[in-house]
C-alpha cells in the first residue's frame, strides 16, 4: 500500500491543527516534519515543541526528518515529543549505527537518509537496523525544488538490495513529488511519498493529497 506523507514545511503555521485535520480527512498516513538547524542545512525550522503540539492534535504517524548536525543530542527530546519515526542523515559526524540503535531503544522507528550526492550504497550496511530508508530527491533544506530524476535509479538500487536480503524496510522518497511523478516513483519502488509544496501550495490540502494518491495508483 502506498502511503502519503504531507510535509508540513509548506504548511501555514497559523492554522496547524486545521491542516492536520485536512490531511487526516484526505486519508494521509504520515505527517512529515522537517527539522533543520541552520548548520547541517542552511535553513532553520522548528524543534520538539512543535512536534509535541502536533502530536496532541493527531494519531497519525509522525515521521520526523532530522536535518541537523548532531541528532544524537536530541533523540530523547523528539521521542518524548511523540515522534513515531526518526530519520537521520548518513552525512552527520556521529556514528549512524549507534544513532539507529538509540532510536529503537527509545521505542521509535529508525530511518536513515542521504543527500543526493552521497552514494546510495552507503545505506546498505545499515539496512537491518532500519525501519525506513529515505531517498532524498532534492538537496535537503528547502521545499519547492524540482525533482531530481536520477533519484529513480537510487530507489531501484535500494529496492533491489532490500529484496535480495529479504528485509522489511519501507522506502520513502522526499522532494519534488506531485501528481506528475507520483506514478513513476511508485512504479520504481517507493512506498511512502513525501510531498510539501504540491499539497499545501493552493490551500486545497485534502484534494491535493487525494490527487497524489490517485496519480500514484495510476488513476
Ligand atoms: C526538504 C524537505 C522536504 C520538503 C519537500 O529538505 O526534506 O520534506 O518539505 O518539499 P517539496 O515537496 O515541496 O519538495
Ligand atoms: Zn523531509
| Sheet with the most strands: spatial strand order | 1-8-7-6-5-4-3-2
Mean pLDDT over the residues: 98
Relative strand content: 15-25%
Major sheet size, sense and barrel closure: 8 strands, parallel
Fold-level CATH name: TIM Barrel
Helicity level, as a percent range?
25-40%
Number of domains: 1
Whole-angstrom Rg: 16 Å
For the record, what is the CATH homologous superfamily label?
Aldolase class I
Shape: globular
- Our count of helices gives 8
Output the CATH class name: Alpha Beta
Indicate the multimeric state: single chain
- Provide the structure class: alpha/beta
- Secondary-structure element order, N to C: EHEHEHEHEEHEHEHH
Total beta strand runs: 8
List bound small molecules. D-xylitol-5-phosphate, zinc ion
CATH architecture: Alpha-Beta Barrel
Give the SSE map.
Elements: E1 3-6, H1 16-25, E2 30-36, H2 48-55, E3 61-67, H3 75-81, E4 85-89, H4 96-105, E5 109-114, E6 132-136, H5 151-164, E7 170-174, H6 182-188, E8 192-195, H7 197-200, H8 205-216
Parallel strand pairs: 1-8, 2-3, 3-4, 4-5, 5-6, 6-7, 7-8
Helix pairs in contact: 2-3, 6-8
Bound molecules: D-xylitol-5-phosphate (DX5) and zinc ion (ZN).
